[in-house]
Amino acid sequence: MKKLLFVLGILVLGNLQYSIIFKNNNISDFFFLNQQNNKLLEDIKKITIKNTILENEIEDLSSSTHALENFARYNLGLVKKDETFVQVIKK
Question: Which domain holds residue 17?
């Protein structure tokens, strides 16, 4: 009886080891997916920071005519060739 239980235990353990190593969702898949998840989380952080910067820029452009003028002059090519744009900020 003990031999039979020992053999069954070895078979169950062997089956578990086989599935952990060779079948789908094995150990190497776990480490690969964990690494990919960490990379995606870093990408999400970078995109969130970029979105925050863009939201602040949108807020500045919508609330201030001076910011809109600066944006138009530099990003839309409205600064002439020999012109130097100087912004005076009042206290």
Answer: 2-75
